[in-house]
């Protein structure tokens, strides 16, 4: 879905920069009397590589990407929001925002539970998604958002989405099985329970994927 390409690229840049996160930083920010460039850089960062990443954009690139999105996919999404909300909302999601502390905690959590299963994390997929039309928070209904999912190497692919919580030792399991199971349960229970009650009942099937972003609009 093209509408999320720009947002996904921006967040991928952040995630790559944060991927080597450590929960504690030993740097004190007390610069030595002779401030060499190496000493200053080492004092400013907790990460082994704080050089400018290859994923970082130039402003001309950013401007071109924003303009392409605003004159193309965004118009379609704006029309969709207007239709699904009966004219109450006319603007689709402009951006999703995460606190840096939350991103660091999430990456640290994924690294921890994956290490326990002896499965290397290669990165994260960023999926374009939307909140359901009957979502419990009315202002978020049908609004576009994203889901972050950890990846590892499966069948020669380094970008395979997997579920570390339910994987075996050294044996990663893809997320599709759990998504299919959740869909089957939802369809089976649809005639008996409203969406909110279903959601509460199925909370025991936790995932390691993340969302809970601050979505603008409406916030």
Entry summary:
The protein is α+β, with helices and mostly antiparallel strands and 219 residues long. The chain has helices at 5-18, 37-44, 59-71, 73-84, 100-116, 176-189, 195-201, and strands spanning 95-97, 123-130, 144-154, 157-161, 214-216. The longest helix has 17 residues, at 100-116.
Per-chain topology:
Elements: H1 5-18, H2 37-44, H3 59-71, H4 73-84, E1 95-97, H5 100-116, E2 123-130, E3 144-154, E4 157-161, H6 176-189, H7 195-201, E5 214-216
Antiparallel strand pairs: 1-5, 2-3, 3-4
Q: What order do the helices and strands follow? A: HHHHEHEEEHHE
The biggest beta sheet is recorded as: 3 strands, antiparallel
Radius of gyration: 20 Å
The helix content is 25-40%
Number of domains: 1
Q: Could you say which overall geometry the principal axes of the C-alpha atoms support?
A: globular
The neighbouring-strand order within the major sheet is 2-3-4
User: Which structural category fits the helices and strands?
Assistant: alpha+beta
Question: What value does the average pLDDT take?
Answer: 82
Measured between the Cα atoms of the first and last residue, the distance is: 23 Å
Number of strands: 5
The low-confidence parts are: 16-24, 26-35, 190-198
The number of helices is 7
Bin the strand percentage.
Answer: 5-15%
Give a verbal description of the structure.
This protein is an alpha+beta fold. The chain has one domain. The protein has helices spanning 5-18, 37-44, 59-71, 73-84, 100-116, 176-189, 195-201, and strands spanning 95-97, 123-130, 144-154, 157-161, 214-216. A 3-stranded antiparallel beta sheet has the order 2-3-4. A two-stranded antiparallel sheet has the order 1-5. Strand 3 (144-154) and strand 4 (157-161) form a beta hairpin.
